[in-house]
Amino acid sequence: MRQLDVHNAFLNGHLAETVYMKQPPGYEDPTHPDHVCHLQRSLYGLKQAPRAWFKRLHDFLISAGFLSSKTDVSLFHYSAGTSRVYLLVYVDDIIMMGNDSVLISQLLQRLSTTFKIRDLGAPSFFLGIETLEVQSGLLLSQQRYMKDILNRAGMLDCKPLATPAAVTQLVTPSDEPFDNPTQYRRLVGALQYLTITRPDLSFSVNRLCQFMHSPTSDHGGLLKRVLRYVKGTISYGLRLSASASTTIHGFSDSDWAGCPVDRKSTSGYAVFLGDNLISWLSRKQRTVARSSIEAEYKALADVSAEVTWVVSLLRELGLHSGEPSTLWCDNLGATYLCANPVFHARTKHVEIDFHFVRDKVASGDLVVNFVSTKDQLADIFTKPLPGPRFAALRDKLNIVAHHS
User: Fold this and answer.
1) Torsion sign, CA atoms 152, 153, 154, 157
2) Model's pTM, two decimal places?
3) What is d(CA 190, CA 342) in angstroms, rounded to the nearest whole number?
4) Which CATH number fits domain 243-371: 2.60.120.10, 3.30.420.10, 3.90.870.10, 3.30.70.100?
């Protein structure tokens, strides 16, 4: 794996549109002070600059033999015999990885002939995420980012807690507004980015996000609890390890009518590639479910869409095992509904787009199985849990502490 950085990336883009610019201060033509510049290349500050830069990079990579992924436009892949190289772009930050170090060096040399590129070596700090080597693989950590959030909140020395949400405390609207709503929005927005490596925070952060427009003092208390949990788990991150299996399996769960305000349900899912957690979600459903079966069925539709996307990406990269993906649900009624439309009378009101799960099951792309609630890993994404249960599920999601 190599981390690359492009110097002055936006200056590399060629403009497709006609753009004029005032003469820059200090470089005016004294004989023609009213003339303007006709831009040939993009500049920082132009709305077209990001698109022009990406098009320039895209065209170069295609000419160098890379293929652009149709599933994820920021991903490029290169094949030569048994050698594979993958290149992932985020603006001017690039991760390059593959199984042939000679080929990577050759491609990097070609890239350097066109763009001014700095090779930062093995990824250590990418987009605020640290890559730490542990005995069984890699640990993705945002420890510096967590310290920054706690510092912004003035809670660097707060007392830590074992869970981010209390089991007994319901979120109900109160009349007393939070004294600093801007600070609330800043901190909750920062916590959203933290869920990239901390799936265990997904449910609590999702709940806080629902009150951004007018937070109350109660919501401020919930935010402080999450920050106290972050303080106690500041060394935790997401572990990725070598896995013998490449099969995809997902856990889907729903908390029926869990919100006391609008009685909507919360969906949650966790998708694994072999032993590694690669995708997760905690989100309130758009409509009110009339039964627990309907709420679970909607959650199954969410995870089915995600698994379909993951499978299409792996197929494109030639990494899919070809085996059907397995979904685990702890509601028997919902698992029956996926395979057999016998509940038609009870599901007339369910939106049509949820029923695509049946087509996936019928075609053999998905297998939906029942799992007991005790073994349901997605339980952590749908409701507050007691400490021991929360810690057990957190461990099974590969969220572990790094001991330096």
Assistant:
1) negative
2) 0.87
3) 46
4) 3.30.420.10
